[in-house]
């Protein structure tokens, strides 16, 4: 069983959920609970910063999909930021690389949202 820290911060683009540690069976409920407490808004985004993760299992992937579903219900967009390279294969094999938008960092995701908003996209 792993340890996970979940930090949430607000940005003009929406919430950023920063994860560090292991996202697994024992810690996935923390992510689900954190996302459920968020006030997601239409046209905003939910950024999940994965740069601090050192492990993810199928329960963790399921928690990410649940977060995406929660954002979709609120008409918000989900972005995975700073996805560690060591997880690339898992995301490709499961097809999640086609499901989630990726950004190199949480800040880059927020900046892209702001740029799109300025262009009226």
Tell me the layout of helices and strands:
Elements: E1 4-11, E2 14-23, H1 28-36, E3 45-56, H2 58-73, E4 77-81, H3 88-94, E5 101-103, H4 106-119
Parallel strand pairs: 2-3, 3-4, 4-5
Antiparallel strand pairs: 1-2
Account of the 3D structure:
With 121 residues, the protein is α/β, with parallel strands linked by helices. The protein has a single domain (4-114), classed as Transcription Regulator spoIIAA, CATH 3.30.750.24. The protein has helices at residues 28-36, 58-73, 88-94, 106-119; strands at 4-11, 14-23, 45-56, 77-81, 101-103. Strands 1-2-3-4-5 form a 5-stranded mixed sheet. The N and C termini lie far apart (42 Å). The model has no long low-confidence stretch (mean pLDDT 94).
Quick tags:
alpha/beta; Transcription Regulator spoIIAA; 38% helix
Q: What structural category arises from helix and sheet content?
A: alpha/beta
According to CATH, the homologous superfamily is STAS domain
**Helical content class:** 25-40%
State the CATH architecture: 2-Layer Sandwich
Number of helices: 4
